[in-house]
């Protein structure tokens, strides 16, 4: 919808009138053309500035201060808060726990999700029913999941320990041993997110042209070979997405460990204290927002680093052939743009 | 419709959206000035948590006397929610005219006592001395209206006591527990005979012992003495050596703890008044619970709340009047009948409504009478500095570590010392 700026030729206009002078309405329509698009997209950016950018900047500023949240004042102390956090043994325990829970949840979860998606991708009866069931746990609120699993994982009265004792294995001290507490928390995470990831992967699988499989079948490739050489490479972009979102989610894990015992503070010896749990405790337990803000930034850097490592690993693990041909280098793109402009100018 | 009109419309909509956002950000800061006319219609807000016993009927009584006042009562689900809300808005705007504050975070709040409206002088002296002392700031201003207190007694299972060959009568049992040593000795005897734990939790004993010491982690002037204070070390050693062997759990409120209350795993609990409701609610089918009018080592208070009035509120004078009424002895007794919150005023203890109250669940124990006795036995008002909660929480963790066998007594103490040195 381009507004044309060409004036209708009028008979009585003096022939020497300079064409360069534009009327007000013409100028308005020029501004309109230039500025309107920005106005249209502005609501998102205004919202983002208020609820996204401002808190980020505010957190950054506070992280360098000894901040009193009630009196809204603070003293600038430089990197003191960062130094304090990095010198806390609790922080390093929390970091270790976070990674442990993240690995215990993400790895089995993605493998399982891939398997479920591959199963759902086949010709089975009542397909929609199975697909809906996969998503069902995701609908349950994490706090509810926490409450239910808590009752199951209780050390003495829990159903899981009851079962383990019945089959002769003996009770597991879920709330005492760090490793077992991580397993219990990872179970809650997996319960909630496996189906969700499976459906995303399923959607990507459905987009793979069926001819590939037909050709592979004709060539005599088995189901496993087909999965490994066709499905997996085609899933690459989706897998990267799923891995990165679950990394971010995994490193920010909060609800499940917080609901894991009655106090929500990570255990008597920090067995299941995670970074966000520690952050919350420093911020809303001790009301030390400077330290909490500094920790938020440290967590941000960690997630960024792990996200990058993840990206590289996933890229190199899952090969893909032939999809890169369509991509142009920056130089080529620039040349093409210039050519287009010239074309337009000639018109 | 031409494109320009659409475009203008869209621009207007986005301008409105932006304007609306700005407005939304601004609203909430507008507070009306206090009306000069005392009979002008007025809306008072009060926010509490859990159950203070302030039912709609109770608040209606106040509205009947003051027809111009409308009371809006907001209830937070837990004291933690109330705490987060309180500290986010204190010093800014948005707090209710009257805010309820729990004892656990009361000392933190006392750092900002200057942001609160002091209690009028003529009300001073109507609460128990120690209840008032805790609410008096460094300048001698009383800044909070006491609501309830948590005088502790011993709740016990008379049936389990009888099975173990212990006396089960309320008065005889009271004689068993006058000192902590007696309690531990009886507990050990019970454990030896029955093979079952005697008390519910070791950390409750820590709480009980701590509340009987004047100076624990911080001195009145703010000096931190936690790790050097021999009293703290003694309490820790006592709990680890004597309470852990006879306790079923490290702490309260876990799923296991709740489950075992109903199936009679332990025989006794240290219980403040508000715990009666917890026990009868969790174990409605257990018949043997009773209450002995005794607490080891004298008296002990656990919990209880206050009402405070933010000084920058819109209706400070009217809020003071309502807070005065809510914490009067008559209203306190009504709240006790409604929710078991025990009155914090000596005047209420003369009322027959309180002295005559018996709790049928606890074998008709005179809980009103027992509460008065236990409240008057409280002699020590512990100094609780702004970091009391952090210190105490970390020490509870130390006890839990020993209980769970993660660390031994000395290692766990050293871990605590390292941990609190960072505060």
TrEMBL record, chain A:
The keyword Cell membrane appears for this protein: yes
Q: Which domain of life is it from?
A: Bacteria
Q: Which Pfam families match?
A: BPD_transp_1
User: Which ranges carry the ABC transmembrane type-1 domain?
Assistant: 95-310
Name one cellular component (GO) term: plasma membrane
Q: Where in the cell is it found?
A: Cell membrane
- Coiled-coil ranges (or none): none
Question: Could you tell me which InterPro entries the record lists for this protein?
Answer: ABC_transporter_permease, MetI-like, MetI-like_sf
Q: Extract the PROSITE patterns matched here.
A: ABC_TM1
| Membrane topology field | Multi-pass membrane protein
Q: Which Gene Ontology BP terms does the record give?
A: transmembrane transport
Instruction: List residues traversing the bilayer.
Output: 37-58, 99-120, 132-153, 235-254, 294-313
This protein's UniProt keywords: Cell membrane, Membrane, Transmembrane, Transmembrane helix, Transport
Q: Which PANTHER family match?
A: ABC TRANSPORTER PERMEASE PROTEIN (PTHR30193), INNER MEMBRANE ABC TRANSPORTER PERMEASE PROTEIN YCJO (PTHR30193:SF37)
Family per similarity comment: Belongs to the binding-protein-dependent transport system permease family.
Give the protein name, as stated in the record. Answer: Sugar ABC transporter permease
TrEMBL record, chain B:
Entry-linked SUPFAM superfamilies: Periplasmic binding protein-like II (SSF53850)
Organism equals Microbacterium betulae
Q: Which domain of life is it from?
A: Bacteria
Q: Does the keyword Nucleotide-binding apply?
A: no
> From the record, what ranges are coiled-coil?
none
Q: Which UniProt keywords apply?
A: Signal
Q: What is this protein called?
A: ABC transporter substrate-binding protein
InterPro entries per record: Bact_solute-bd_prot1, SBP
Please name the Pfam families in this protein's record. Answer: SBP_bac_8
UniProt signal peptide: 1-24
């Amino acid at each position: 919808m381009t507004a044309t700026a060409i004036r209708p030729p009028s008979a009585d206009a003096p022939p020497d009138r300079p064409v360069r002078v534009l009327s007000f309405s013409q100028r308005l329509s020029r501004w309109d053309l230039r500025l309107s698009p920005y106005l249209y997209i502005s609501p998102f950016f205004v919202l983002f500035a208020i609820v996204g950018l401002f808190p980020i900047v505010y957190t950054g500023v506070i992280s360098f201060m000894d901040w009193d949240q009630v009196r809204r004042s603070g003293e600038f102390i430089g990197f003191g808060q960062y130094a304090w956090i990095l010198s806390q043994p609790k922080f390093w325990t929390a970091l270790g726990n976070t990674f442990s829970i993240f690995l215990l949840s993400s790895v089995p979860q993605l493998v399982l999700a891939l398997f479920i998606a591959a199963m759902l991708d086949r010709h089975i009866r009542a397909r929609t029913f199975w697909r809906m069931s996969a998503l069902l746990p995701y609908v349950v609120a994490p706090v509810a999941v926490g409450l239910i699993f808590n009752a199951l994982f209780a050390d003495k009265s829990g159903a899981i320990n009851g079962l383990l004792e019945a089959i002769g294995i003996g009770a597991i001290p879920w709330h005492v041993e760090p490793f077992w507490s991580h397993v219990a928390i990872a179970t809650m995470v997996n319960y909630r997110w496996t189906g969700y990831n499976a459906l995303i992967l399923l959607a990507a699988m459905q987009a793979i042209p069926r001819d590939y499989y037909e050709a592979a079948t004709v060539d005599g490739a088995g189901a496993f070979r087909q999965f490994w050489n066709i499905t997996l490479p085609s899933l690459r972009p989706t897998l990267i997405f799923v891995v990165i979102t679950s990394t971010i989610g995994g490193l920010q894990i909060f609800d499940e460990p917080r609901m894991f015992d009655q106090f929500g503070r990570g255990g008597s010896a920090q067995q299941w204290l995670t970074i966000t749990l520690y952050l919350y405790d420093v911020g809303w337990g001790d009301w030390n927002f400077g330290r909490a803000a500094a920790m938020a930034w440290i967590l941000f850097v960690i997630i960024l680093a792990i996200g990058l490592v993840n990206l590289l690993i996933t890229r190199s693990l899952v090969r893909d052939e032939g999809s890169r041909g369509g991509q142009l280098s920056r130089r080529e793109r620039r040349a093409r743009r210039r050519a287009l402009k010239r074309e337009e100018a000639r018109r | 419709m031409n494109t320009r009109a659409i475009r203008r419309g869209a621009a207007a909509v986005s301008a409105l959206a932006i304007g609306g956002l700005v407005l939304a950000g601004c609203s909430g800061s507008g507070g009306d000035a206090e009306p000069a006319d005392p009979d002008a219609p007025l809306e008072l807000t009060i926010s509490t948590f859990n159950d203070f016993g302030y039912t709609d009927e109770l608040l209606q009584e106040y509205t009947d006397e003051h027809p111009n006042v409308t009371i809006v009562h907001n209830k937070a689900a837990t004291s933690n929610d109330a705490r987060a809300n309180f500290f986010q808005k204190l010093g800014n705007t948005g707090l209710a005219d009257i805010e309820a504050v729990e004892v656990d975070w009361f000392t933190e709040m006392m750092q900002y006592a200057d942001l609160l409206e002091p209690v009028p002088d003529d009300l001073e002296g109507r609460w128990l001395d120690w209840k008032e002392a805790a609410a008096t700031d460094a300048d001698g201003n009383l800044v909070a209206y006491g609501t309830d207190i948590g005088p502790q007694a011993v709740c016990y299972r008379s049936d389990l006591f009888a099975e173990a060959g212990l006396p089960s009568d309320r008065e005889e049992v009271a004689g068993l527990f006058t000192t902590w040593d007696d309690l531990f000795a009886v507990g050990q005897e019970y454990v030896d005979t029955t093979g079952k734990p005697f008390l519910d939790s070791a950390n409750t004993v820590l709480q009980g012992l701590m509340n009987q010491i004047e100076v624990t982690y911080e001195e009145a002037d703010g000096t931190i003495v936690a790790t050097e204070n021999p009293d703290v070390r003694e309490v820790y050693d006592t709990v680890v050596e004597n309470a852990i062997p006879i306790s079923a759990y490290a702490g309260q409120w876990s799923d296991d703890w709740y489950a075992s209350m109903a199936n009679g795993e332990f025989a006794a609990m240290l219980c403040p008044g508000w715990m009666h409701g917890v026990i009868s609610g969790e174990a409605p089918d257990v018949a043997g619970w009773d209450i002995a009018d005794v607490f080891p080592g004298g008296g002990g208070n656990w919990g209880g709340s206050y009402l405070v009035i933010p000084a920058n509120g819109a209706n400070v004078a009217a809020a003071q009047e309502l807070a005065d009424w809510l914490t009067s002895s008559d209203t306190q007794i009504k709240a006790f009948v409604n929710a078991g919150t025990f009155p914090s005023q000596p005047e209420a203890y003369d009322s027959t409504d309180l002295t005559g109250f018996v709790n049928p669940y606890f074998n008709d124990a005179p809980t009103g009478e027992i509460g008065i006795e236990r409240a008057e036995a409280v002699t020590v008002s512990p100094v609780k500095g702004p970091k009391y909660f952090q210190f105490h929480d970390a020490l509870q963790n130390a006890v839990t570590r020993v209980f769970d066998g993660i660390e031994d007594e000395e290692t766990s103490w050293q871990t605590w010392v390292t941990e609190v040195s960072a505060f």
